[in-house]
Amino acid sequence: MAESFNVVQISSPKKEQFRVYSTTRYLGFETTSIKGKSNKVENRLRSNFRAKRRIQELLDINFADYFSLMTLTFKENIVDISVANTTFTRFIKRLKRYLVKKGISSSDFKYLCVVEAQKRGAIHYHVVNNLPEPIMYLDIINIWNDTIYKNDSISIKGGSVHIDYSQNDTYLTDNMSRYLGKYLLKNEVNPIFLGKKMYFSSRNLKKPVRNNYYKKFNTLEEPDVIGFLESDFSISLSGKKLFKKDVYYDKYSGEKILFLEYQ
Question: Which residues form the Replication-associated protein ORF2/G2P domain (predicted)?
Answer without folding.
Answer: 69-187
